[in-house]
Specification:
single chain, 35 residues, mainly alpha, 0% strand, transmembrane, MaAIMP_sms, membrane
């Protein structure tokens, strides 16, 4: 694999995991506000 393809894989993983973490954090904040 070339360096650019590895970099693109890393960027994609960061975006996916970042979105997942943001959605979880958003759900936790909403549930705390609801209580």
């Amino acid at each position: 694999m070339s360096g650019s393809s590895i970099a693109m894989m890393i960027v994609g993983m960061v975006i996916i995991w970042g979105g997942l973490a943001a959605s979880i954090a958003n759900a936790v904040i909403k549930s705390k506000r609801a209580n």
